[in-house]
Amino acid sequence: MGRKQIKKTGSAAKKHWKVSEKVILIVAILLLLLGGIAIAGRVMVSTRFLGDSTLQDGQLSADIQTPSELQGRLLNLLVVGVSDDPEERESTKLTDTIMVVSVNIEDQKVNILQIPRDTYVGDETANHKINAIYGQNPDNWDYAGLDGLSQMIYDQFQVTIDHYVTIQMDGFRDMIDAIGGVTMDVPVDMELNGTYVEAGTQTLNGDQAIAVVRTRNVYANADIGRLQTQKIFMSALLEKVMSLSVDQMASLVPTLLGYMTTDLTVEDCLGLYYLVRGMTSDDITAVTCPGEGVTVSGQSCWGLYHERTAIILNELFRPFAETPDISSDDLGIYDVVAEPYISEDEDFGLGTMTDYASE
Q1: Could you list the residue ranges that cross the membrane (predicted)?
Q2: Phi and psi for 105 in degrees, rounded to 5?
Q3: CATH number for the 11-179+244-337 domain, one of 3.30.230.10, 2.40.160.10, 3.30.420.590, 1.10.3720.10?
């Protein structure tokens, strides 16, 4: 299909194709991980860290990785946020955040594809949603664990996966405390599970930060109000991360490693950290897979749009001639919703991290 140029302006469109509030948090954590490992581990560049227990052979399949002719120019990371917070749910290993972080090494750009956790995957999971794959038993399901999740993403989007990072989201509290808190202007008084936060500029500890990003009953517009507060918090968090000294970054490694698994080596982290560190937020673009909500067998799922998804993938995730454009027919997306007509002047609302932080 011919490549459709995507415009990146228009606040109304941004609200429609909004990036999840957790994306900026994950990016901040990922930068912390890369930086801390890179700084603390210079003398052990070949070291690998704790691998993910759900991988069948201990590593991702070579069949879904970037071809050799593009290695050194393009690198794709599968980044997964796993939530086992006992305050939220029982231990089910649901993946609350799933995204592909595509690093264009040649052009020094980062593009992030957020895959909604409720994305419909047919009968490949009991709840029909992609977020259940990671916790499934490989003896009972074709797609299970990190193997199955990475394979599903490759099958649906034809995007290669070279490495992975999993992050336990219940480490959020400890991470905020480890960096000395986050300073922000809290818009309203709020309370969550006995933790009270007053309105005004202050430095939040871990418990207070959780209250700020989770509370929604204090806003007249509920989730919309919470989303705006979360964006303010994530912007403040990213600013704090970028301000940390070498010694502070190194001191965070023990805390952070307890909440992650990855197949990256220290050498990999060094390269990625210094590449990303030299970028500005204008060099980082984030987009959520377009679609709409649909109910299937009593489950509320996210049905993906074929054409719009193909356009986004071609624009952001297939930057070189060796990764030729794909058509919507090439994707393995499940056909569960009717996609609206795409007008010639449609604004897809792609925005850089600067755009989202400044709203």
Answers
A1: none
A2: -65, -40
A3: 3.30.420.590
